[in-house]
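Page 42, continued from yesterday. The earlier attempt failed because a stray header line got pasted into the input along with the sequence. Redoing it now with the clean sequence only.
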Amino acid sequence: MWLRRGFFGWLFPAAIVLPLWLIVGWAVFNAGGWAFLGVIFVAAPAVLIGELVLAFMIRARPTVRRDRAVSWWDVLGLTVWHGLVIAYGCYIHVAFAAVLIFAILAFLAVFWSSLAQLWAEARGTFARMAPGTGPADIGGPTAPMGRPRMCDEVIVVHEVGSPGDGRTAH
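This time it went through. Structure tokens are written below.
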């Protein structure tokens, strides 16, 4: 459980740390000018937006909010995706394109997995809201539908105005 809770706490800091790592990695590994432009204008913003979308989607699930822990599928997917983003930030020239492609595929897998989990949990909420399941639909002693129920006592209060206040006196 501590690992799942750790990932829960890591979701939003990762949105800042991972794009920063891409910039720091560029400086540490001397990747070149074109790589810097790609990082600044494409990779870092894509990782930032992608991480924020995943964080909000994962935290939208009721079980994640209740337990303050992500699912094991989230742990697996985020580990793979974050590992590939970190590897991409190392700018290994031999595997640069392959790491980029696998990182994109890993993000898509985590996105669809999170969406499927969110939908599965939301489907239970929709089922509870279906017709015939609300408190008004619970059986019990009711009057026949054809006749209105008769109330025991009705009190009618007539308000009478005083002279000059604009209301009519009865």
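Notes: The chain has a mean pLDDT of 85.
Reminder to self: strip header lines before submitting.
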